[in-house]
Amino acid sequence: METITTLNLFLTPFQPSKSFPPSKTPKPPSLRKLPPLITRVSSSSSSNGRNATESDCPVPFDQQPVNEYQSLSSSVPFSWASAELPVYCSRLALTGTAFSLLVGLPVAAFGVHDFRTGVVECVVGAVSAGILAVTLSVLRMYLGWAYVGNRLLSATVEYEETGWYDGQIWVKTPEVLARDRLLGSFSVKPVLNRVKLTLIGLAVSLLISIFLLINIESSKDHYNSNDSGGRTVPGVYNDDSAKLFEPDAFCGEPNIN
């Protein structure tokens, strides 16, 4: 019996006492909440730095170069230069076409006496008017972007405090100067390069149009002189030519045919 009792003790599974709860391993503290905290701290510090920089700037809000850049990039027609290339070209083409049809074509048609021989002159005149209108628009864009670019790249800012010609000069802080020059180098200079190339192309087109108009006028004068038998010379008047057309005014004088 003792042997059986001993075997039962060894074969019975061990059950832990209820008075000793199983130990739990402590979990490490979670780190998931740290990035938002860091983000809030960094954003608050950057906003505080920006507010401090803006509060130290005595230049009025509308005269600060960065605000002038934002205002220029959202106004018409200056915003066309900073748009995508297809949008930029289409708007310039639409402007030139509208001006040619609405203004250039009526004016050119009014100056043509014979539409059978002056169709080419009328078309070239209308196209020249459209090119001139686009050239003036692009030139206005260039002047505006060049002004803002110079103020962004400059180390000083000229401003008027009250608008009564009390000019002041403010020296930019290193942070403001670095921001403005970064904006001017990577946002304004590409726009200026595009506008410069556009002005060169428009100037060449305008010169070609003027050259065509001059050739058309000279060919018309040459045709008229040949049609009249070569008896008239444009821009020249003398007695011999007057005698040919007004013989009654030279009665009694020799060499009258």
Automatic annotation (TrEMBL):
Keyword tags: Membrane, Transmembrane, Transmembrane helix
Region (Disordered): 14-60
Signal peptide stretch: none
Transmembrane domains' residue ranges: 92-112, 119-143, 197-216
Compositionally biased intervals (Low complexity): 31-47
Keyword Transmembrane attached: yes
InterPro entries in the cross-refs: CGLD27-like
A Pfam family reported for this protein in Swiss-Prot or TrEMBL: CGLD27-like
The protein's name: Uncharacterized protein
Organism encoding this protein: Acorus gramineus
